[in-house]
Amino acid sequence: MARLADYFVLVGYDHDKRGSGDGQGRIIQRFPEKEWEDNPFPQGIQLFCQPSGWHLVLERKSPNFFVAVLTDINSERHYCACFTFWEAVESLQPPKNHTNDIDDEEDSKFVQAPQLFAPKSLVLVSQLDHTEVFRNCLGLIYTIYIDGLNFPLETVIGNLLTCIIPITGGSQRTISLGAGDRQVIQTPVNDALPVSGCSVALLLKQLGISNVLELFCAALTEHKILFLSSSYQRLTEACRALLALMFPLKYSFTYIPILPAQLLEVLSSPTPFIIGIHSSFRAEMQDLLDVIVADLDGGTVVIPECIHISVLPEPHLLQTQTALSMVLDPELEYADHAFPPSSTSASSMKFQDKEIRAVFLRLFAQLLQGYRWCLQIIRIHPEPVIRFHKVAFLAQRGLVDDDFLTKVLEGMAFARFVSERGSPYRPCDLFDELVANEIERIRLEEGNAQKVLKHVKEISEQLHRNENPYPAVAMHKIHKPKEGSHLRVQQSTFPHLDEGTVQWIIDQATAKLKNAPPAVKAEMKCVAPMGPPSATMIDQNGIVLANSARRLEVVRNCITYIFENKMLEAKKLLPAMLRALKGRAARQCLTQELNSHVLQNRAVLDHQQFDYIVRMMNSALQDCTPLDEHLVAAALLPLVTAFCRKLGSGVTQFAYSCVQEHLVWTSLQFWEAMFYSDVQNHIRALYLEVDVDHPSETGCDNEKQQRSALEVAAEQLRMWPTRSKEKQQELIDKEESIVYSQAIHYGNRLTYLLLPLDTSKNRLLRSTAVGDLESVSNSFVTNSIAGSVAESYDTESGFEDAETSDVANSVVRFINRFVDKVCTESGVSNDHLKALHTNLPDIVQMHIETLDAVHRESKRHPAIQKPKLLRPALLVGEELVMEALRVTLMPDGREESVGGSLGGPPIMPAEGAIFLTTYRIIFKGAPVETLAGEQTVMRSFPVASFTKEKKISQQDFQDVLQLRSSTFQLMKITFDDEVASEMVEIFRKHIHKLRYPQYVHYTFAFTVGQSPKQVVESKQKEKNPSLRTMSKNIMKNAKKTIGRQYVTRKKYTPPTWDQRASPAHGDNLEQISVSEEIEQSALTLSSTIKSDKSTMSHMVERACCRDYQRLGLGTLSNSLTRSKNEPFRITTVNRMYSVCRSYPSLLIIPQTIQDSTMQRISRCYKQNRFPVVCWRNSRTKAVLLRSAGLHGKSVVGLFKSQNAPAADSSQTDSTSLAQEKYLQAVINSMPHYADTGGRNTLSGFTSAHMNSSGKWGSIRGSGRLSAYSLNSDIGLRLAGKETLSQQVNGGLSDSLYFRQPRAGLYIIGEKSQLKGAKQDPSQQWEVVPIEIFDVRHVKTSFKKLMKACVPSSASTDPNQSYHRSLEESDWLSQLHKLLQVSVLVVELLDNGSSVLISLEDGWDVTTQVVSLVQLLSDQHYRTLEGFRLLVEKEWLSFGHRFSHRGAQTMTSQSSGFTPVFLQFLDCVHQIHLQFPMEFEFSLHYLKFLAYHYVSNRFRTFLLDSDHERIELGLMYEEKGEKKTPHAYKSVWDYIDRLNKKTPIFFNYLYAPEDGEVLRPYSNISNLKVWDYYTHETLSEGPPYDWELVYGRTEQMDDGERADTVAPRTRRKIVWPCYDNKNKIEPDAISKLLEEMQLLESELGQVPDKWKETWDKIKTTQRTESKQEGKHLSSSSLLMSSSLSHHRRSQCVYLHEAAVGSTLNLSLDTDSSTASTPSSGVMGRKSTSTLYSQFQTSESEHRSYEGILYKRGALLKAWKSRWFVLDKTKHQLRYYDSKSDTDMKGIVDLTEVESVTLGTAALGAPKNIEDKAFFDLKTTKRVYNFCAQDSQSAQQWIDKIQSCLSDA
Q1: Where are the beta strands (DSSP E) in 1200-1288?
Q2: Coil, strand or helix at 924
Q3: Nearest-5° Cα angle at 1454, 1450 to 1456
Q4: Sign of the CA dihedral with 1311 first, then 1313, 1314, and 1316 last
Q5: What is the pLDDT of residue 1691?
Q6: 1732 neighbors 1800 (Cβ within 8 angstroms)
Q7: C-beta of residue 870 within 8 angstroms of C-beta of residue 925
Q8: What pLDDT, on a 0 to 100 scale, did the predictor assign at position 1782?
Q9: Are 757 and 792 in contact (CB under 8 A)?
């Protein structure tokens, strides 16, 4: 029984506080004034009467009613029914004080009439929720007041406050308040079931099914929920409905259905809540980022982005949605029927409400089925103590990974559910019946809509009967006010009530209650039904089920083999078993099988058995999810204390010392669950024994033995009142002793699994919170999974006291915490608890002493079957820095090595050792996978390429050390237990020491093969550098060298150190032999230049000088004999490196520029890198210049007009003038610009100048592009303004021609530097600003590229896929920019404009662009020798900062690794892919350079400039010093030697066209990722150290192979990423060359060099070509068309790797299917090209042949050649001699315009008559020939004319 209402309150507007902002309410009267003892008056009730605030209004409103809910400090809810009406405000106070909305004139008219109305509330406070009763009672009071009924209000209120009604039981109570009224109050049958009325149906109607389900899930998973509505009562109803849906769970957080405006800050609280607010406060919600907002009026639910709501698991979600649809819209099922049933309308709101709740009750019954089987009863007496085993419940249901159910079980609502419903003997309700008895019915009916709906209606009827057990009887009689009574003008205020009268009525009723007998509520307790246990979880995936039986068979067989000592069989099955243990069923099978081999709690094994069992246990624990791990650990816990091995007399090692590395052992949750489970079993056994001693009359013994612990507990609770007090106390003591003994037992178990075998390990892990009670776990890592349990970090045995106590203390602290928690919850007495705390340190100490002996013996015991360490082969001079460290190489993000989608056995992880040498970091080992165990795994990279070290902490293993290299290699290693931590630290320090030496001469390239004494120390550097600065000076005598092309070289003898240190004498000048006779006077040197002969001889041979001579740029002449028609000269102004330290000593400048002005010009440029000529176009005579960017102040001078008068003769003006003269001299060097003297157009060019030969990306294309096919404004294109049409493939459009005048010189500069500068139209040069990336972007891009190509771990995030990462790196974008700029510079040069590249400091991007331009324009640089020359000239001599960019020493470590040179090589690779026939070298050559430019094996790429190399003596020793047979100091010497030995660097497709200019496509879609970044060969390591990979004879190494070798077979399985495919199956040509050499060796002949054999074969093939060429093959058509680069030949298979190419065609041709030409401009097809692709078996046709002298094109020297006129092929070919088979050149007769007699030219052969000369003019050039005599010359003219006329 309870009071209907506890308090009646009259709350009104507080007129005393009207002036200050918002109004306030105040309690006018309260009854009773004295608080009830059992129910104090709730504070702040006036806030809830007007939730939106107390405001005066202008119009009288209709009365309203709502129920607010207040929660007190004891979590008791008080229902506040508020009835509000409005009263007129007294007119004594001027209205203007109340409002500003009415002006003064109106105020004066209505002075007497009231204008404002104030709210007043009648409030009932009750602990019962009877909304309609409260509405009627307050309505009655208001009616009496407003209509003036003749009933005293005090009597009515007194009767209301003294009305007593039952709380539950289903009875009806009729009440009357003494005003002629009558009401019937219906109580629910069971108050455990919530009363919802129609609120749930209303909520579904307002929000819809989907939104309500989201709110339902959000409430259960403890999110913040906010309801919005303009109706307060709707807010209360919605909140009540949500709570009703959550039944049987009860909401335990903040619950405020109506929140007052003054308390809105509650919404910012961190705890979950369900709150309702008026929709007028919607704007206040903008800042709430973690609140789910449900708008009841709008029907929407807004979930913030940062919130993830866990949804119901399937199929429950779909089933619930379907059932709700059937309830709310029964017509839906029949909507499509042709004849729908007539009566399918939905139930009334009241019944619909219960049907909806029935659906959710069924849902909870399904979700929580079998929950009682996971309850653990710890104590029965004196009070039941029950816990829920969450992990077991989830595992039984197969929902371990389900997010929703996990969160529900961890929530406070479920904790309260367990505490209230866990007891086995208690009152039961509808939910208990459902979850116990209806589960099977629910399962069977799923999918049958009619049966589901029937069941829902059955449940809903029970819910409805609970609220309405009797049919409704119309017995209500309530007075209601008359219509419009609240609008009456003259109304009296609510009267003041007499407190005494009301109190007297209350006192009278209280006195009667005291005299009445107390009402005793009979509690209907019963045994809570257990229900069916959860079915064992079955995998839903059919494939998994099919495989599971086979896996379980593998597990059983493997364990059987182990215990039968069939170790070989077990070893074969072990990898498969370890993989099988990833499945839950296999792990369960493992524990069952191991249990069957335990006899009397002990199983003694031998060492190998022990090792295998431990590996299985570790594997089972590693592959679990965190929750699943608890179950596996629980099953293994008894086993790890049972399996053991004997180490010696009296020393036994148990398995627990080898499985301690898993975090589960330090989870308090796990240990508690295990403890409670064991306690429950003992409690159950206790009471089963008690029942045996005192048999009851019910049931037989078998039934009792099968009863669960809860059933036993229920029986004991039922019988408890009948037992004597002595018996009760005896049972309490027995229960406590069980808990106490189990606490001691678990103290021992915790000690076993927390104390490490070697406590000294903890010293290393002290920083990782070893002593932290939460994380003691991972600190105690002992032995690896490999099974070595005998090793430790320290070599010493025993413990120091301090360490022992430290380890012991951490373990004791953890165990104490565990004991405190479980014993307190289990009701252990304080005395027992103290005894436990006292004994624990002794238990730990005793175990430490036991482990001491085990540890000592285990160290003596040899490791079990650790793989033998394989030693790697080393280079000559490469020495080990550290001995092998045993490690495991872990897999990284590259899936090739782990099987994965590519197939094959997993090669990773691999066991082996890591070696650190002076040159490399090497891993060598064998895969852990037995099926791949016979293979050898090699992974290495040079120490100099090491870029980053990273430690990765992993749960399953020890810390992983990750080493990353700039050669795109990654090593993730874990060190074995035998490796001490000190050795790991030493290893890391040695890596850093070798990677960043203090000086460059401490690198491997210098120290190889030398003792430290021979290393030149920095203090021994040459102080007087004058000798060495001569090494780049070169001079040439013009008078004596006409007709001579080659410089006769003398052998270089290096000067001794004494000679280098002393000044040389002036008479020791080198005579550079350029002819048989040379005069000493012809060589004039500056008096300051001093050198010896050997030094000057070496200077002539330097790369720059050789190239300048080839290009015709450099002349060795003095100023008196300087040829006026030679526009450029070699200057020695930088011979002392005084002008620019990063430039070479010899430079090319215009002839007219004096050396004295160069110093001034250099000041204008960064790093003093002034413009110098580096290449000249032999056809257009345009030159390519390079320099650094201009200084800011120098930019202005560049744009001044050369004719502008100078303001003064300041130094700045003279510098600018000198700069202008320099640029003008460059322009004047080009003949067509020198003649016109101004900016001229291309119209002045002759056809000879303008025939631009070029090739767009193709395998072979001979379509020519006219010079007029360039775009109209190169400047715009270079500046990045895409205003002109471009082809989609990145090439140029051919539709536009030059229409504007062109500049003589284009200066390519940085856009940021040239911003705002204006061009002077009178100048003949044009500055083109471009946007180019800087080296910082290259560095960042390279890091991202490495992570994309060699990821450290496999990524499951689609946003981190390989292609996405590649795109984000911007590497291909930078290649695109470089190629784009280079191609456009090539266009400019090819069309007669010179170009100056003036970017950044002139040594990074400038070098890249200049090198690419020369490579594209000059086919000489596409040969092996030419490419070497290009790199030596542009990269080494011109001072690319290799040491700085490569961070080669300690001083440059901070700058980081920036691979500028690698980017250049990648660009060359892209060009090579598009033009595979234009390069003599293979792609492997580029990879070789990419690898060794960072490897520091050679000295070539060390240091930053020639100046630094001379200081260290590097410029002399390359050719001078005697080399050891294998140690090469120059990479070029190494390449030359290797190239003579093997065609590894040669491109078999090499078939260049004369004068071909390449224009590659540069769009990103045309670029490919270089396989150098992604490919690796694990069988032998990187293939770039030839001696290590190819130099050794292949033989079977005992250490690298298994004991038994299978019979040799010709079949070879090639694995991706493991085998070197080109080595195992070389391409056809390499294979044939190799076989030829073998055959020659077998025949006793001396094998020819491969190049000689290759040249012979090529010549033989030419002589066998067909004479008839009328029918052209498809391949020749292909070769004559301009193919786009991606049209690869189907008959050509290119191995872009170590050993060349596979060709299914003749060696000199490219066979292909016919293909359509690209959209390029098609020129006239070259007949020679067509015929050169057409081979025949007949001999070569020679129409006429003989000796002619031919004048050279570049150096104009006359050479004797053997000429052959071929009428069939329409060619004039020439050879060195008659017997020579290698053609030197070819003249296509289709291009011949005329053949005429010529005149004798300078340098012609002597004693030849004038008429013996004749000229052959073609579209390209004019050939000058000289025959033996005039008759022979005439014969040649006639033959050629005849051939032309035949055509």
Answers
A1: 1255-1256
A2: strand
A3: 105
A4: positive
A5: 35
A6: no
A7: yes
A8: 80
A9: yes
Give the residue with greater pLDDT, 1252 vs 805.
805
8-state DSSP, 1824: E
Reported as type and span, the H/E element at residue 1628 is: helix 1628-1642
| Residue among 813, 875, 737, 1030 at smallest CA distance from 1492 | 875
1058: exposed, middle or buried (Cβ count in 10 Å: 0-12, 13-18, 19+): exposed
Q: Tell me if the bond preceding 424 is cis, omega within 30° of 0.
A: no
- This prediction has a pTM of 0.50
> At residue 761, what is the residue type?
K
Q: Is 44 helix (H, G, I), strand (E, B) or coil?
A: coil
Candidates 1076, 1070, 1069; CA nearest to 1048 is: 1076
Which of these, 908, 888, 1016, lies nearest to 957 by C-alpha position? 888
Q: Residues, the chain, total?
A: 1847
pLDDT at 189 over 60: yes
Asked if 1821 contacts 1180 with a C-beta cutoff of 8 angstroms, the reply is no
- Given a contact cutoff of 8 angstroms between Cβ atoms, the answer to whether 1296 and 1178 are in contact is no
1202 class by beta-carbon count within 10 Å (0-12 exposed, 13-18 middle, 19+ buried): middle
1286-1318 exposure pattern, b = at least 16 Cβ within 10 A, e = fewer: ebebbbbebeeebeeebbbbbbbbbeebbeeee
**Residue 1845, Cα to own-chain centre: how many angstroms?**
70
- Burial of residue 1096 (number of CB atoms within 10 Å: 0-12, 13-18, 19+): buried
User: By three-state DSSP, how is residue 1052 classified?
Assistant: coil
pLDDT score at 1073: 33
Q: Is 240 helix (H, G, I), strand (E, B) or coil?
A: helix
- Tokens 């007041």, residue? 145
Tell me the C-alpha distance between 163 and 161, whole Å: 6
Asked if the model's pLDDT at residue 752 lies above 70, the reply is yes
Buried b / exposed e over 339-367, threshold 16 CB at 10 Å, is: eeeeeeeebeeebbbbbbbbbbbbbbbbb
Is residue 270 within 8 Å of residue 230, measured between CB atoms? Answer: no
**Both structure tokens of 523:** 């509690």
Q: pLDDT tens digits, residue range 1611-1637?
A: 667 776 777 777 777 778 888 888 887
User: CA-to-CA distance for 251 and 273, rounded, in angstroms?
Assistant: 9
- The answer on pLDDT for 1463 being more than 90 is yes
Q: How far apart are CA 1788 and CA 1785, in angstroms?
A: 10
Number of helices (H), then strands (E), in the chain: 57, 46
**Using CA atoms, how far apart are residues 956 and 938, in angstroms rounded to an integer?**
24
Residue 214 CA to residue 312 CA, distance in Å, equals 9
Q: Which helix (H) or strand (E) segment is 841 a member of? A: helix 830-860
Residue 1062 binned pLDDT confidence (cut-offs 50, 70, 90): very low
Backbone angles phi, psi at 1790, to 5 degrees: -70, -20
Q: Which residues contact 1218 (CB under 8 A, 6 or more apart)?
A: 1157, 1160, 1161
- 3-state SS, 63-84, equals CEEEEEEEECCCCCEEEEEEEE
Q: Residue 92, SS3?
A: coil
The backbone region for 187, taken as left when phi is positive above 0, alpha when psi lies in -120 to 50, beta otherwise, is: beta
Prior bond to 533 cis, omega within 30? no
Residue 1112, classified by CB atoms within 10 Å of its CB into exposed (0-12), middle (13-18) or buried (19+), is middle
DSSP-derived secondary structure for 1694-1738: ---STT--EESS-TT----------SSPP-PPPHHHHHHT---SS
Q: Is the distance from CB of 1774 to CB of 1785 less than 8 angstroms?
A: yes
The single-letter DSSP state of residue 1014 is G
Contacts 24+ apart (CB under 8 A), 28-37: 28/120, 29/496, 29/497, 29/499, 31/7, 31/157, 31/158, 31/161, 31/497, 31/499, 31/502, 31/503, 31/506, 32/7, 32/161, 32/502, 32/503, 32/506, 33/499, 33/503, 36/6
Q: Which residue has 């990145």 as its token pair? A: 1290
